[in-house]
């Protein structure tokens, strides 16, 4: 398989979805633990690899994210719907994560191999997608959630800046790891036919 080709087999798509689901499960379950939550990067990477499968893959990952949140909250003896983070704004995670998916899908359309141009597009698209995700998720929580007692534009700007860089840094870190693994896979796939050709000529 040529990884520059957006066409993936159903088995490959299912395998990628499973890996991404496991990564999200391992990191989202302890949001502020030693291993940062990879959910944002998971949706971006899923948009890249599973472009064309959004009708089933995106809802599957979205459902997993909600189920993980439900498990974490209820395991603490707290009613899910009364938790600080759960309000009508919680459902804005759908368009927030959708922005990440779209960013990965946009990059896939323009991908022709790991070259300087693609690396630039990767960093730019991941940063923009994560920024839109943060703006929507943070903004909806600030302006809609009852957990915020007093609201003002200045207060939102301050709130907006509190966690922006940590979220962006974490997302880019995980996307960087995925990029390294992608590059290694590309090299391995190029190496395998070469070795097979050498073996056939012996």
UniProtKB/TrEMBL annotation:
It comes from the Bacteria. This is Cobalamin ABC transporter. Keywords: Membrane, Transmembrane, Transmembrane helix. The chain crosses the membrane at residues 7-26, 57-78, 90-107, 119-144, 164-184.
